[in-house]
Amino acid sequence: MIKLTIILLIRVLCIGNSFSWDAVEQELVPLCEEKGIEIEVHNLYYGGCSLQQHVVFMQKNKAVYGHRVCTNAEPRIVKDTITLRQALMDGKYDYISFQQASHDSGIRSSYEPWLSILIDSVRAYQPDAQLCWMQTWAYSQDAKHPAYPRYHNSQQEMWDSIQACTKYVTALPLSPSLEGRVGERFLLIPCGAAIQLARQTKLGDTLCRDGYHLNYEYGRYTAACVWYEILTGKDVRRNKYCNPQMTHKQRIYTQNAAHQAVRQCH
């Protein structure tokens, strides 16, 4: 077997929760490896963490995040808990992603002032990183999540609300006072759009394992395919890697959904 030559190094920090765990910790590295791309993903995990909670943790400098690191050499290492400041001071990142907690993802009033505070805090440590917004997904139609009634237990209502909040976030000027960076915006990672598109295929509403977290076979794979296209600029439909538990048709449906989501949003 011929080993591919490494052609690119990408370093990523996710200020996240269990949804970033789903999206980047399982399938993103194998997708990159299949094309000889070196990647280093740092996921700061705190379950259900909202933008407001991230700000509180940042201001109090609390070491509460599970530090999960995924690389070509080590698929997934869980390190000691860490503060957000410590993570931000750990070398330069090419991309830093933000996201709202799933239960607040379609609630516009939950975003500010927390998102703006978090942006300024991150920029102080990482002025050159591309800031990204990971769009989360709506719950399954039959989800039992305690926050689902906020959206009248309607997947479509939740998805419409997430899309509205995404438009707000991606219109935000990130560095209005920095010379040469006027007009900079979040780079959108449309995982939510990809999941919704995949639900319109023969896969149906089966991408979640518990109503809100993605299943381990093709749910997580769909979100990772979106990340792959955004970070590398490559068409995921030309990537031969897929989860060993997936069928050929599942690979086609999910790759097409991810590719279509990226094309529609960019």
Write a short abstract of this structure.
This protein is of the alpha/beta class.
Explain what the structure shows.
The protein is of the alpha/beta class and 266 residues long. It has a single domain, classed as 3-Layer(aba) Sandwich (Rossmann fold), CATH 3.40.50. It contains nine helices and seven strands, in the order βααβαββαβαβαβααα. It has helices at 18-24, 28-34, 51-60, 84-88, 114-125, 155-170, 191-198, 219-232, 248-265, and strands at 8-15, 37-45, 65-71, 77-82, 95-98, 130-134, 187-189. The chain has a seven-stranded mixed sheet, with helices on both faces. α5 (114-125) links the parallel β5 and β6. α3 packs across α5 (114-125) and α8 packs across α9. The termini are far apart. The model is unreliable at 1-6 (pLDDT under 50).
The CATH superfamily is SGNH hydrolase
The averaged pLDDT comes out at: 94
Number of separate structural domains:
1
Instruction: Return the CATH architecture.
Output: 3-Layer(aba) Sandwich
Helix count, DSSP H or I runs of 4 or more residues: 9
Q: Which secondary-structure class do the elements indicate? A: alpha/beta
Please give the number of β-strands: 7
What characteristic shape results from the CA principal axes? globular
Q: Taking Cα atoms only, what radius of gyration do you get, to the nearest Å?
A: 18 Å
Measured as a percent range, the helix fraction is 25-40%
Largest sheet: 7 strands, mixed
* CATH class bucket: Alpha Beta
* Distance N to C terminus: 37 Å
Strand order of the largest sheet: 4-3-2-1-5-6-7
